[in-house]
Predict the structure.
Amino acid sequence: MVNTSFNISIFTENRIGILNRITIIFTRRHLNIESITASESELEGVYRYTIVVNTSLDQVKKVVGQIEKQVEVLKAFYHEDDEVVYQEIALYKVSTKSLQNGSSERILRVHNARILTIEEGFTIIEKTGKPDELKLLFNELQGYGILEYVKSGRVAISKPMKTLETYLKELEDE
Amino acid sequence: MKNNNISGAEAVMKSLTQEGVDTIFGYPGGAIMPIYDALYSYRDQVNHLLVRHEQGAIHAAQGYARSSGKVGVCFATSGPGATNLITGLADAMIDSTPVVCITGQVASHLLGTDAFQETDVIGISMPVTKWNIQVTRAEDVPGAIAKAFYIARSGRPGPVLVDITKDAQFGETTFEYQPFLKMRSYSPVPKIDVAALNAAAELINSAQRPYLLVGQGVLLSNAESELLDFVNHTGIPVASTLLGLGALPANHPQYVGYLGMHGNYAPNVLTNECDVLIAVGMRFDDRVTGNISKYAKQAKVIHIDIDPSEINKIIPARVGLVADAKELLPELKGKCQQRNHSEWIEEFHKLDKLEHEQVIDGAINPSSNELRMAEVMHMLSEKTKGDVVVVTDVGQHQMITSRYYKYEVSRTNITSGGLGTMGFALPAAIGAKLGNPKKTVVAVIGDGGFQMTVQELGTIMQFNVDVKILILNNNFLGMVRQWQELFFEERYSFTDIQNPDFVKIAEGYRIESTKIEERDDLSSALDKMLNSHGAYLLEVVVGKQENVFPMMETGAGVSEIRLN
């Protein structure tokens, strides 16, 4: 079966160990997690995880079923990339001196990036976007010497979805 | 009910008694001492059995749960005590057995410091528990235990572990117990999807060769009588998985046998001849399906299970019904026509005749001098009319028992199915007896598995547990030897096991025992065992190199199961 990138969104109660319970399900099926982010959702006490995996549709369906089976998981969904709006954020540390050839304005405009700080020795540039966009800036900045680079996991919001509140209400009415 | 200022440890005991717990299997140790101290005052209300190893405690709790339908409970200390539970947790997880384990833990300020007997039991047990929780404050004890019982027994049951730090056991709390009733992230009782129900009924009504497979889900949902009504009404032939044996009495005219790798011939072969396959409370384990690319491809599958993640996990379902069998079967019956499928059932009987001629008749009436496992189990089945609790271990004797013991009564078949845990039977039999004291309990065990948890003879001795132990001794690790013979060119790599004198071992534990080797002694020896007062060990020496047939080889489909 063909592997595709899937965005898995998981909503859970806020309790110690739940992340472990979720990641075990991937480990057990020998699936590598490409990226993972977690934060509180729009509802207080409900945590939201975005996990990106490359796998088959058949496999992702079973994984999501087993995630949802966890007692403290409220709901889990999977979406292909074109069904979600997603972003990642990257920080690039380059030497301030190397940027002083006048190209920094063009770089920032072309890549829609911004500078977070300029210190004597280094400048930190921030860009949010899709992975390939972050990579383009990375490639360009490599010409200037990248001192450090860090990229976040993906955050994704699906296009078609009932609100979390609706789901919760359904769960509570059961 | 509110009590002021009791210890966390006493809150454990109060919570357990509130949950109706009257039997606990356990082993004390440093980090659980306050709970054992509280238990000391509850000896008149709670029967605690001191096992000889924590693995024995959890298998006993499993046996108790399986025979009684109640939640099994065990105690263990931190560190090695807790890690010794892991095999049993994994076994209970895969076989959906409701168990609550209470483990002691080092004081909370020592967590994560490599303190004496500290282990991350929450982390270790996570993949093998339905839910687990660490309690670090006395006031959290009642809530955690209430939730543990609710989760263990509801929905698809499973094992739950509650790890309680020593300071939480010593700490003071006010006690007020409220049973746990509901959590928003967990829906144990699914609502029946009416559209799916109608679709299922339509498929069944239009089927010419419908076929019903039942699993342990029927027992777990106490749906035996609902199943019987459904089966009688629809006239559909019924086969059972290993853990489903006894869900429908073996003497029912529509019962066609036992599924799987060493199951009966007809129910396996005809899986690929039915037009509608109805699976209730079973999960299409690979030991049932064989090669799934050759499994029931012609059939429209209706899969009924309480666990939504089971639907389409292995076999794609035309209709998936997430439901409790007890609720669903009467609804489905109401929509199904009364039918008679005697011609279709006749096809099972024809193949059954073939299996009798080529396998069964020779196995239960052998011409060899050596005793065969099948004749022993056949005779036990006849003598007990399929109505004692039979606890089996894992291996050839287990498959032979599932094949030749005719289970007529629900909850009399207790075995390690999914995990295949050797050493399960002896401790599980202890629990099974405690869970159903009125019934005779026979533990059928191989010579290999018996030695994995043999120490539990001490528990049987100390607490006068009336279990009959039937060792089928072929002086070999028989199932692995069979595979070595068939698939590894008879290279018997470390399956030739040298055994001790089992009778002397039993004598050491003051358990009455006999060893027989001759066919002439079998009947009287079984009678003596069944009529004995208290525990009894009967060792039956059987043929060293017997193979279990039929057999579905690795990669073979159900219709390719071989008779010899």
